[in-house]
Amino acid sequence: MTEQSHTHPDADSYDPGASSLAGQVDPAVMAELLSIRSSIDNIDATLVFLLAERFKATQKVGFLKAAHRLPAGDPGRETAQIARLRRLAAEAHLDPGFAEKFLNFIIGEVIRHHEAIAEDHEAAAQANGSGRPGPAGPAVSAGA
User: Is the Cβ–Cβ distance between 30 and 19 less than 8 Å?
Assistant: First the structure.
């Protein structure tokens, strides 16, 4: 369900030492900067894999909703999740407003995916002439 971008270089061409600051700052400062950035790179990679796992789970929810003709969104759940994430963010000393914006972005993507799954499910039902959706959908792909 996730879209792949072909505008970014592949992992083999990534240069963790790339910086427009090279040669402009003290080498010791640059070394410390690159060390910290290495940790940031590891965290970013972890976030990508965590988001992939999250979208695999939400894709399963989308198939279940489509099979039972449930709405793509669940405003009660979304409100509860936003309140929960805002509280967790505050406890973690992260701006709750940022956490809410981030979660709202994810929720929007999940709903968009659920709507697409429901449309595909309905189209399959129309194609088989039953007017009723068939099985809950294909196995969850690794890219979801």
Answer: yes
